[in-house]
Specification:
Chain lengths: ~400, ~260
């Protein structure tokens, strides 16, 4: 049967009619006659029924041929239809004479399997709730252990660095210090200034009711030195530096840079983690001190505009009201916050997958773990401070 | 040392990711001075096998004997010491991105030798010169092309003059000319440095040019299905999966078709 290949893209559409098909039976063949224009936009997904050949008296020893003489333009909808024909024919062991099809349709149809694939079921998690919770708890404990061993590795690396035997390069440490410290000054300034101002503003309004406005210096000073500046600076660093560490390390993982270090025998803890952690541990307490001063300055600016006190008087009242212990307490807290943020971020980065999406997930996770961890650590410090009477 | 000395002996190795077995019953000997090819289609576990040999993935069963020692039974320090004899070229070069090309090659020398900075610089220039990358000594990895990254990665891999060089898909992503040059380079390094080479690849022209021994891994059965040099497998092997691979056939002929062809 001579066939003319007609395709919607190739031929101008002169006249179009609805697509239709019919099955005709003869002694040796079953003939599937196709008519009309097969267009994906108008055809409404015509499919050959799975038991479409059951109406034929017999399919044994017969061949299925396709008559396309009345077929006008066609597109991929015809291939979809022919695929359902191919599968139905395969079910009743009816050979399809693909030569009766247009050449391009033959090639496309040949790519499509005649049997539906055996779909691999996704593994279902059939664990009971209790065992799943147990698994999660064990994982969390393992993670704590891993973090601890990572901390020990880094501490050893730091000890080696003191003897000049570390894999850490001074250049990497200085770059990390620059990124963690001076580069963050602006954002630390803005946030701490605003927080100090807000504290002073709210404090003044409330204290005025009791004619105790002068105590705003204590309020701003103690809150900044003891809690707010340490926490706000740590949160900024968790979002800024922690996220960057996790993203950088997980990208290195994806590029096989970590593998290359391991194979070469260069300790990852000394080479990658140590400069990152050390830089944050060095810079965070300094940023905290800076943040505290800026926060108190924020309170000072608001107080100057809202209460009757001389600038010198304000600062003297602040020095009078804020004990040095408060600064030491905040300083020590910020050291722990820094170590936690950096360790958690590095761990999250090392544990990440190797795709681009995993880098994003690692960065997000590092920030979330960092912030939640800071708040939790602060609660622990509050209990300790209460116990030792600071 | 004899030419047939076995450097690495892999015995009944099994590699898995969780419950999923990637390869099992993998056994072969790596002879000194040979270029050993790990062949097979995509996803059959070639790179996974290489990662296991170089210490990046612990096998779930079997042994990797290196100089009579069971590699994975050794403590970390000993494994690291064994790894000093290895040089690995990863798929993308895996250059450390915060360092220049020259610093990448210099770092292993700084870490594991007592050479002076001047001597290290001289060696770095030599190794980069061997791979034709001396001009890029001060460039960062993001400033050079993929092929150059691989060559620089190769210079880093040979920095400590390893006994065994591992190549993971060295030709992947390279144009045919660059790929052929890399093949020449591998052969020159084998002959010049006396290194033994393990190469993971499915690039037939490369394999046929350089490899003189090998193993063929099958993705379906998760086992090796034959051993031998790629050339011998091309000429003599009748296993359908191997012949389809070697002749770049899109379909794997059935056993009966093979037999019929042989009768003809």
């Amino acid at each position: 049967m001579p066939m003319t290949e007609t395709r919607a893209r190739a031929m101008p559409q002169t006249s179009s009619s609805a697509p239709s098909w019919s099955l005709q039976e003869s002694k040796d063949t079953l003939c599937l006659a196709l008519k009309g224009t097969w267009d994906i936009h108008t055809q409404n997904g015509a499919r050959f029924p799975q038991d479409g050949f059951s109406s034929a008296s017999s399919t044994v020893g017969k061949t299925l041929i396709v008559d396309t003489s009345a077929l006008q333009n066609w597109d991929v909808s015809l291939i979809s239809f022919l695929w359902s024909v191919k599968r139905a024919a395969s079910q009743v062991s009816l050979p399809l004479d693909e030569k009766s099809l247009p050449a391009s349709a033959q090639r496309l149809l040949a790519l499509l399997p005649d049997k539906p694939p055996e779909v691999t079921p996704r593994p279902q998690n059939k664990e009971r709730l209790l065992s799943r919770m147990g698994g999660k708890c064990l994982n969390s404990l393992t993670e704590v252990g891993t973090m601890a061993s990572l901390a020990v590795d880094v501490a050893r690396g730091a000890a080696r660095a003191m003897h000049g035997k570390s894999a850490m390069r001074l250049k990497d440490l200085l770059v990390d210090i620059w990124n963690a410290g001076p580069s963050a000054l602006l954002i630390v300034s803005i946030v701490n200034f605003l927080v100090g101002s807000i504290l002073a503003f709210v404090g003044l309004i409330e204290l005025r009711k009791f004619a105790a406005e002068i105590y705003v210096t204590n309020l701003v000073g103690i809150a900044s030195a003891r809690e707010i500046s340490a926490i706000m600076t740590a949160i900024i660093m968790a979002g800024r530096t922690g996220g960057a560490y996790a993203a950088r390390i997980s990208t290195m993982l994806g590029n096989e840079e970590i593998d290359a270090l391991q194979v070469t025998g260069i300790p990852v803890s000394g080479y990658i983690l140590l400069p990152s952690i050390l830089s944050l541990v060095i810079m965070m307490p300094l940023l905290y001190l800076y943040g505290t001063v800026v926060s108190i300055f924020g309170g000072f600016v608001v107080s100057m505009s809202m209460m009757d006190i001389s600038p010198v008087g304000y600062w003297l009242a602040t020095f009078d009201g804020v004990d040095l212990n408060q600064f030491i307490f905040g300083f020590i807290k910020s050291l722990f916050f820094a170590a936690f943020i950096a360790l958690a971020a590095c761990r999250v980065g090392l544990k990440a997958g190797r795709s681009a999406a995993d880098v994003g997930i690692a960065a997000t996770r590092a920030v979330v773990i960092g912030i939640v961890g800071i708040i939790a650590l602060d609660a622990v410090f509050a209990i300790i401070a209460n116990a030792i009477g600071i | 040392m004899s030419a047939q000395e076995t450097l690495i002996s892999v015995r009944n190795l099994q590699l898995s990711f969780g419950p999923k077995i990637i390869q099992q019953e993998v056994s072969f000997d790596l002879k000194r001075g040979s270029i050993f090819a790990v062949m097979g289609g995509s996803g059959c576990g070639k790179s996974t096998l290489l990662r296991s040999i170089v210490g990046l993935l612990r096998p779930t069963a079997g042994q990797i004997m290196v100089g009579g020692e069971d590699y994975w039974a050794q403590p970390d320090d000993r494994r690291t010491a064994i790894n000093r004899r290895y040089g690995v070229l990863f798929q993308g070069g895996a250059l450390w991105s915060s360092m220049t090309v020259g610093e990448n090659v210099a770092l292993p020398l700084e870490m594991f030798t007592s050479l002076t900075p001047d001597e290290i610089t001289e060696l770095v220039r030599l190794k980069l010169g061997l791979v034709g990358m001396e001009h890029a000594i001060d460039l960062f990895p993001y400033e050079i092309s993929g092929g150059m990254c691989k060559r620089a990665g190769l210079a880093r891999a040979i920095a400590l003059e390893p006994d065994i060089l591992f190549f993971d898909e060295p030709s992947a992503g390279l144009d045919p000319i660059t790929s052929a040059r890399l093949d020449d380079l591998i052969l020159s390094l084998r002959d010049g440095l006396g290194a033994t080479i393990v190469i993971v690849s499915h690039e037939l022209p490369s394999l046929l040019t350089i490899a003189d021994d090998g193993i063929f891994l099958d993705a379906k059965t998760h086992r090796p299905i034959t051993h031998g040099s790629p050339r011998a497998l091309l000429d003599n092997c009748t296993i359908p999966e191997v012949t389809a691979f070697m002749h770049r056939s899109a379909t794997i002929p059935s056993q009966t078709e093979q037999k019929a062809e042989q009768h003809v």
